[in-house]
Amino acid sequence: MILTLLRLQLRWLFSSMLKSGGRKRGMRIFIIAALIYAAFALGGSFWGIFASMLRPYFDGGVGWLYFAMAGIMTFSLCFTGTVFAAGSALFGARDNDTLLSLPIPTAYILLSRAGALLVLECAYSALIFIPALLIWAASPFAGAPGAVFLVLCWLLTLLFALAFSCLVGWITAMAGGWTRHGKLIRLAVSLLLFGSFMYGGMYMSQAIQSLTENGAEIAASVSVYLLPFYHMGRAAAEGDPLSFAIYALIVCACFGGAIWLISRGYLKLITSDRRTVRTEYAAERHVRAGGAPKALFMKELRRCWYNPMVMLNTAFPSFLAAAGAVFVVVRRGDALRILSEITGLSSSVSAAAIIAAALIMLSAMNLMTASLVSLEGRQLWIVKSLPVGGSACLMAKIHAQLAVSAAPFALASAAASAALSLPASGAALVIAAPLAFNILAAFVGLRINLRFPMLDWTNEIQPVKQSISTVLTMIALSSIVVAAVAIYLPLSGGVSAETYLWICSAVFAAASLLFWRRVRARGAEDFAKVGDGVG
């Protein structure tokens, strides 16, 4: 039964992205080619990392640290890759009620969903372990016993990361049910984890250099504070069966304990909604009526706010912009130094143009409308049956992204302008250019999602992270930015950067106006076509 459930999960997992791209063979080939390119690009970067670490570690007598670092990197990548989806996949899947109505033990449901996450971890970890294994196998330090233990330790590391991902997802799901502000708790935890990941990425190059130059000191720390990976490294490097047994025992204990702890209250957690708060009605309370546009707009905001994973994956640049504005205000000296270093990179381009261009590039990662149509799911018929036009439904999605993105970027623009004491024209550019691009990005994402919707999802994180509309929107917005830069390069001698950005802002606004007229004229028709054939 578990294998049957797991097979169904995997079949949907690997077919959902291709199905969202339609049935055209060319689109599917493009998706597969994009995934292969991304895999080779990331795998190549890890190849360079392990190639630089192999000989210094083995020559220094700490060869086990090479495999320990491979295990630590694999654990980190798998954990960050699945922790944001674990809560939705394990506890918020849309087909939970269907599966519970069948004679299937809840433990089987839990293990099948965890197994699907494990397959995702296999894909993530292959980008690290395959380069590490190939580089080591081609070296004079390779040995057959170590190769066997290395493969087994690879599989155990996946279980190790999955245990912590499931625990974090369980904790956030439980915390979200204990209080009416559970959404804030889940969002705060997600932001903390994602912020830590981004912080580590910023200092990755420094960390790699430190790993290469200070192997002995790092080995001493790993052997004390990261004992499981110390034994993993010894098992792979020296073929030590005792170290392998210790590592396997630690991993199995962590994974078994996590599954046991989650399974104790799994049924109650997925069948109860403890976020429900009793509403008290008072006779003297006056309720102000609102129109259909406001109701639709609030519906879109509540959908994203209800699932912090959706908000985090679609509007994370807005959080970065807001955090940057706070940083500029609180740590003005440090912010001014950083901004001065950035703007000092080019003597021919003004500070206002550099800040505006940076905010535009950050805006290209705001992808909320790229999944808002997909998030309607199988309840799309409810929205279509409302006595409102399709254009009103689509504009509500546009307004939702602008409400989330416009204010943070405006704050970041104002804070940067004040910190650098920009003139009025420069401050206006820093505010206007990102705003114009944000509006265009909202329309582009909506248009692509109308063309490639994913409506047969089982949890809301899937149309956000695994749909072709999200990928195409990201490519389209990045292409706009790249094209703008490419056009400016031959014109840079005769046109100032500020003038060119004002022209770009006008082009963005004109394109947004055309999209808006399309929504007003044919929005009902376009929206009516969405979901045809979806049961």
Describe the structure.
With 535 residues, the chain is an all-alpha fold. It has two domains: 47-271, no CATH class; 292-529, no CATH class. Helices cover 80% and strands 0% of the residues. The chain is built from 23 helices and no strands. Helix 7 (182-202) packs across helix 14 (308-330). The model is unreliable at 274-278 (pLDDT under 50).
Topology:
Elements: H1 2-20, H2 25-59, H3 64-91, H4 96-100, H5 106-137, H6 144-178, H7 182-202, H8 204-213, H9 215-225, H10 227-238, H11 241-264, H12 266-271, H13 292-306, H14 308-330, H15 332-343, H16 351-363, H17 369-372, H18 380-384, H19 390-420, H20 424-451, H21 461-465, H22 468-488, H23 497-529
How much is the average pLDDT? Answer: 78
Q: Report the span from N to C terminus.
A: 26 Å
List how many beta strands DSSP finds: 0
Contiguous low-pLDDT stretches (5 residues minimum) are 274-278
Provide the helix percentage.
over 70%
Write down the overall geometry: globular
Percent strand: under 5%
- Quaternary state reads single chain
What summary fits the major beta sheet?
none
Query: How does the helix and strand content classify structurally?
Result: mainly alpha
